[in-house]
Specification:
It is a single chain. By secondary structure, the chain is mainly alpha-helical. The chain folds into two domains: 55 residues, Homeodomain-like (Arc Repressor Mutant, subunit A); 153 residues, Orthogonal Bundle (Tetracycline Repressor, domain 2). It is built from eleven helices and no strands. The longest helix is centred in the N-terminal third of the chain and has 25 residues.
Length: 214
């Protein structure tokens, strides 16, 4: 598949075509419903040509998940211990919402994997992802101990952020069916709502009382 100097331009192009086609098929059909024939058809390649690049459906799926997981973890990694706590957490919320707007198929690919019991990424969930979430939960707990963030369970706070932001990708058809938005206009309104929601929830009680008493 490669030569001494690495993949050729055509090989890079075909690999990209296959992964793009696979993302479309896996995100709509799930792993079980997707077939190599469907992926090859979407890529505009023959099945034998596809198999030159990837030995199996599993190999394509693994390549997609590997790339996705790094992208998915980056916003949480960006939570800065030196920043203003409420601003940092709200910025994370808005980054996650933007990812749902920019990468809805990737979000559904990940959701489908989880719904199947995470057979291909279970080790990552209990390994790298758990370590990162535990690290950021400990950071949030330290902010709480310093009185800079309201006393909310840090792990469940992170889960709530995932739920409220990824909903706009994973349940896109439902959201659009109810709101009937023009393009992606509803994401701007969602950003305003989620910022209000989480700022109100995260603000230390004494600060909340001061603001509303003034």
């Amino acid at each position: 598949m490669t030569n001494a100097t690495g993949p050729t331009r055509i090989q890079r192009r075909n690999t990209s075509l296959i992964l793009e086609a696979a993302l479309e098929v896996f995100s709509s059909q799930g792993f079980g419903g997707a077939t190599l024939d469907q992926i090859a058809r979407h890529a505009g390649l023959s099945k034998p040509n596809l198999l030159y690049y990837f030995a199996s459906k599993e190999a394509i799926h693994a390549a997609l998940l590997d790339g996705l997981l790094e992208t998915w973890l980056d916003p949480l990694r960006a939570l800065d211990p030196a920043g203003e706590p409420v601003d940092e957490i709200v910025a994370y919320v808005l980054r996650k919402l933007e990812m749902s707007r920019e990468f809805p198929r990737e979000s559904r690919l990940f959701a489908n994997e989880i719904l199947q019991g995470a057979p291909r990424i279970g080790g990552m969930i209990t390994g790298e992802l758990k370590r990162l979430v535990d690290e950021k939960a400990a950071l949030i707990a330290s902010w709480q101990a310093a009185g800079r963030v309201a006393q909310l369970d840090p792990h469940h706070l992170i889960f709530s952020i995932w739920a409220t932001t990824q909903h706009y990708a994973d349940f896109d058809v439902q959201v659009r069916g109810i709101l009937d938005p023009a393009g992606d206009a509803h994401f701007a309104r969602a950003a305003v709502f989620l910022e209000q929601l989480f700022r109100g929830a995260l603000m230390p009680r004494e600060d909340f009382v001061k603001i509303h008493a003034s």
